[in-house]
Amino acid sequence: MSTTQSERLRELLEPLVTSQGLDLEEIAVDSVGRKRVLRVVVDSDTGADLDAIADVSRALSAKLDETDAMGDQAYDLEVGTPGAERLLTEPRHYRRAVDRLVKFQLADDEELVARILGVDDEGLDLKVPGVKGRKAKERRLAFPEIAKARVQVEFNRKDKKDMKEEEEA
Question: What pTM, to 2 d.p., does this model score?
Answer without folding.
Answer: 0.73
